[in-house]
Amino acid sequence: MGLAVTLTVVLTAASTPSEPRSHSEVPAPPVAAGTPDAQPAVLVVANTSGIPGVVAYDTTGWPADRDDGPVAQALRHAHVAGPVAYSVTPPVGGDHSPIWLNCGVYDQPVPNERAVHDLEHGAVWITYQPSLPATEVRQLQAFEARQSLVGATGSRYVDVSPYPSLSSPIVISSWGFQLRVSSPTDPRLQRFVDTFRTSSTYAPEPGGECTGGLGTPLQR
């Protein structure tokens, strides 16, 4: 009888599906060390999004008249190898690393220069204070998971990461636009994503790569 019980337990355990492995984050490496490329202050312009509270910045030269480049006080958009000192925190565009961040959820800060490349490709970047309660962090992660995949890319074109010294509990950014909120349930977060994510109106290179870069997120 004891042998039969043992065999039953072993067979039952063998036939039970194993639990999925938890995904481990691999942080994206920082850019090469060096003297930061100081970005000039970017001009604040009228908010054309229709979303209350959004701050808009001058993106002249992107996406219209791309060959002309940005004018004075507009966001730069060149590839640079080293660090960048952005005039907006978190950055909403500017010069950036030639290698982008793989889009998704991170529980560690990510390099600005790589996240900005994601913004250029039409991603939105949700940053939050490291002290944000764990329940609210999980709400932001769930928010990211609810967003649809974009085409056949396998990406939602949403980044989520903590951001040290953030002046607001939560900040969501796209190329040239930014919104500060105090709660992950603020309905403007979804409006922001719906308006700016992979938008041919607002993103310089909508639909550009958001995978195949650097970093492994906790969830895509």
Question: How would you characterize this protein structure?
Answer:
It contains four helices and eight strands. It is an alpha/beta fold and 220 residues long. The protein has one domain (32-196). Strand 7 (170-174) and strand 8 (177-181) form a beta hairpin. The protein is globular. The N and C termini lie far apart (49 Å). Residues 1-22 have low confidence and may be disordered.
Biggest sheet architecture: 6 strands, mixed
Unreliable stretches covering 5 or more consecutive residues? 1-22
* Count of the domains: 1
Secondary-structure element order, as H and E? HEEEEHEHEEEH
Straight-line N-to-C gap: 49 Å
Beta content comes to 5-15%
Structural class: alpha/beta
In helices, the fraction of residues equals 10-25%
- The outline comes out as globular
Question: Number of DSSP helices?
Answer: 4
**Largest sheet strand order:** 2-3-8-7-5-6
Tally the beta strands.
8
**Average pLDDT, all residues:** 88
Computed Rg: 21 Å
